[in-house]
Amino acid sequence: MQISGHTRLGCLLGSPVAHSISPAMYNESFRLLNLDYVYLCFDTKGKDLKTFVQVLRDMNVFGFNLTMPDKERIMEYLDEIQEAARMIGAANTVKNEGGRLIGCNTDGVGYVRSMQKTGYDFTCGPMSLLGAGGAASSIAVWAALGGVPVLHILNRKNGRSFPNALRLADQINAGTGCRADVIDLNDTKAVHGAISECTLLTNATSVGMAPNTESLPLSDLSCLHPGMTVSDIIYNPRRTRLLCEAEKIGCSTSNGMYMLLYQGEAAFRIWTGMDMPTETIRAKFFD
Length: 287
Ligand code: NAP
Description:
about 290 residues; alpha/beta; 6-stranded mixed sheet; 6-stranded parallel sheet; 11 helices; 12 strands; about 40% helix; binds NADP nicotinamide-adenine-dinucleotide phosphate
């Protein structure tokens, strides 16, 4: 990659960002496609996001990504918001189109694509989703748009995201053909009833993530059944305890690595209008 006077900048904003795999993924893609772009990470901790965004506008960046805690905060500084991002209430990808900043959300796109790549058909049965935070919201909306007939959102009633779970279910019921409801994660009987009828269970909570790798997002796994698919969007560790236990029961499993890859693929297309060399990137950085 040769930096020139014409090189356009893109970046990741949030905190922490130094560990991110995104610079490797995008810069290698730019190099392979001979695009005069470069992608860097900027830690926004303690910084004023509004000022940061104004600077990015002034520098005429091609676009940027957002991670925690900036995905929701960015919404008020955008000129236009894609419908799905509006339903989700957060944007992880922004495109600069002639000076107008357009907010999109590709997290759930990445999740749906990663599951389709395993052969999972979202229209084949009900789905239970653990969590109602940022990532879960995006997955819920894109799974509903992707044809899930019934979606159970499971979150602690006393948790921070419970009001968001209720808002999400309302949005999905009003804006898609999916029937969504919200169940208190502490209501064991209702949780078991929901998961028992599902073909897909997705963990989109942070429970099981390093360093707390012994934790399980469900207190009782007896509702899991052979033949169902259990996926965990956590990618550190790659095999969470939930996935290990589900495998013992005979479920198909998948982790969060490819969600990361395919949300990047979707962002790449939004910025460049081109297909990312996904399989090469996958083999080099994700497998
Ligand atoms: P977030 O907005 O903070 O949401 C966290 C969710 O986890 C909330 O629903 C929260 O519920 C729930 N939760 C936390 N502790 C819990 C507990 N002890 N019991 C039950 N529920 C609990 O975080 P996020 O951005 O959505 O990220 C969630 C996870 O997804 C993280 O592990 C992150 O690394 C991963 N992720 C992966 C990808 C990928 O590409 N693979 C992308 C984004 C995120 P309460 O409201 O009840 O606290």
